[in-house]
Specification:
about 240 residues, alpha/beta, Rossmann fold, 2 domains, five-stranded parallel β-sheet, 10 helices, about 40% helix, elongated
Amino acid sequence: MMRRIFVVDDDRDHAESLADILEMRGYEVEIAYSGEEAVERFQVADFDLVFMDVKLPGKNGVETFFAFRQLRPDVQVMMMTGFSVEALVRQAVEGGALGVLHKPFSGDDLLAAVENAKPRGLVLVADDDVYYAESIATLLGGAGYRVRVATTGREALDMMQYGGFDCLLLDLNMPILSGLEVYMALKQAGRLVPTILITGNATSSDAEALCPLTEGLLVKPFDPGTLLQKLAALPGRAAA
């Protein structure tokens, strides 16, 4: 499927030259020349990747990036700059931007950035702690994964029935329908995907029963980097 790319740059010549390169490679491209124009367009259009100039008039590129993140937390943005603005760039990267291209950069650099920004797999986070689930979703979204959240075992089962997920992060300690029950129901229905267990009690009987069958166990609170490493090690689209 053709990927849609959004170029946000007040330098019209530079923006149009990027669009030309990308369109010749088969990408669909739109351009905005200010942060305000970009946010207005982003509210009504969906893009797979954004190239964002840091030094925009009015709302600068970093402010525009964070406005994008509020609208769509999993947005993928590559910052661009021809100036020494390390503090702004660092702020964007720490907030989840993919990185920075320093102007002038080559067409090969541009296309390599597009290739490296291919969206990763779709992850279902099943955890009855809403705030914890949302924090994991934010972490994974910033790393390029697409994420959905289920806060009950029943909701997780219903969402998994439709398919399309590449990985399941499954809390074992959900009420009413436990993680073990969710896992066994998915197995019986032939809907299993690579599963990473989450628990506050590593010695529980459910953890002991399921851990050998899954992609591993994370004990709360765990290092976010460990979760990303486990996801990166998964086969197929879950890690891609």
